[in-house]
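pipeline stage [seq->struct] | target=6-phosphogluconate dehydrogenase | organism=Gallaecimonas xiamenensis 3-C-1 | residues=243
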Amino acid sequence: MATRRDPAACARLAVAGLKAHPLDLAQLPALGPLADCRRLVLAFPPGIRRGQGDSYLAMLAHLRDGLAGTAVENILLVSSTGALAEQDANLDEQSPADPQSPLAQAEAALLQDRRYQSSVIRMAGLFGPGRYPGRFLAGKEGLPRGAAPVNLIHQADAIGLCLAVLEQGRWGQVFHGVAPVAYRRDQFYTQAARLAGLAEPVFVDQQGGKRVLGDWTAKTLGYQYQVPDPLAWCQGAASGVEC
């Protein structure tokens, strides 16, 4: 069963043959529709850039408390690499999260909740059909951190990693979902925009940033990325042949 906040989105899922139920967690609703599920995958935006970090934590607490004692045994939280502090370094699954991040606080609260067996998977920036990365920064000027690595993941691999965790029953762990091939931020977004015939972005400095690593995740899950190279995918998408 799937849930969406928008009833119209639920209707579209129903047309596709999926059982869907409207559920707006921001309203802290009754959770009856989820009570018979054994495993939950939680994937909804925290709204941190809009100052909604506290609401995100409240929604997750409402879920954990409201589903205690029901059929729910396992929870997989789809988090973000934003839980890791911005720094010029390589950060893997064992690197400490940013304690000030609502994402990191949500992860810790879930993993410490003994009412469930849970895991966290931190996803890098999502790309794929309908989300061509060349459009993300096209035409923008004054952009910082030109030398920072680009951390991205194709939606097929985001789904594939979630399925691997669920199918293998890997609980009590933190995973990273990030394509293994990385580029500099200025090089990648300039080339991706150029491939699509879009205005190129302009970067004003060559500062670095964090490179998120997912080698341990791939090895532990025995997972092989379907789209390991984001720029190669952009080249295929721009030519009309997605790879």
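stage status: PASS
auto-comment: The longest helix spans residues 53-66. Residues 31-127+152-181+211-225 form a domain with the Rossmann fold fold (CATH 3.40.50.720).
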